[in-house]
Amino acid sequence: MLETAFFPPVSYFAAIAEEFTLSPGRVNSFVPSQVWIEACENYQKQSYRNRCRIYAAGGMENLSIPIIHENGTYSLPIKEIRIDWTTPWLTRLKKAIVSAYETSAYFEYYKDELFQIMDSRPEKLFDLNMEILNFFLAKTGIVAEIHLTKKFSLPGSGMFPGKDLRGIIHPKRDNSILTDLGLDKPYWQVFSPKHGFIPDLSIMDLLFNEGPDSINYLKSRYLSDTTPLLSR
């Protein structure tokens, strides 16, 4: 189980990919991940729910979505949180992404479809995050069945029988997901010659730099370099 996130970090997708396996034929034969997104919690500030991290020319940069603050914002269900479209934040965000990744190997292949999602301007933060999640699942090649929770249960309550990662993937706290999965290794980043490798940035950093090979990075414990990539 995971919380909703805006351009989630690599660890978020690595956690999803862990449960995704290939059957013996390995090509077009999947056992999908079963993923639950927490849809019944209240909104929490300073989290990945409305922010992400990218690799800009000056190093790591935080991007965020402004939300409409209403009476009791932090007691509102996450699915009711509305995006504030009254300021030109989207233009600034897209410029930041272009500046960071326009020279990456695969940015041109994905940018139009990705920007189209944001240009559709969904009213609710949760809806935008779900579209972004589905986009990156498809482009990285992770096969997952996404479910939304029907009621809220406290983390650690034992009500959810699977792996509960709520509160684990957070911008203010390190997590051991990539290390535990054997994925604490570098991949090529545009500005790594200048600043070195920065781990666990937004999944866009991995996709724009590695493209179709992103799945090999996320599933390196199970796939060899010679394994055919999943069809898209």
Q: Could you characterize the architecture of this molecule?
A:
It is a single chain. The protein has 232 residues and is an alpha/beta fold. Helix content is 31%, strand content 12%. The protein contains eight helices and seven strands. The protein has a three-stranded parallel beta sheet with strand order 1-4-7. The chain has a two-stranded antiparallel sheet with strand order 2-3. Strand 5 (51-56) and strand 6 (59-64) form a beta hairpin. It is globular. The two termini are 25 Å apart. The relative contact order is 0.24.
Describe the protein's topology.
Blueprint: E1 2-3, H1 10-18, E2 21-22, E3 30-31, E4 33-38, E5 51-56, E6 59-64, H2 89-101, H3 107-119, H4 125-140, E7 144-148, H5 177-180, H6 192-195, H7 203-210, H8 214-218
Parallel strand pairs: 1-4, 4-7
Antiparallel strand pairs: 2-3, 5-6
Short description:
This protein has 232 residues and is an alpha/beta fold. It is built from 8 helices and 7 strands, in the order E-H-E-E-E-E-E-H-H-H-E-H-H-H-H. A 3-stranded parallel sheet has the order 1-4-7.
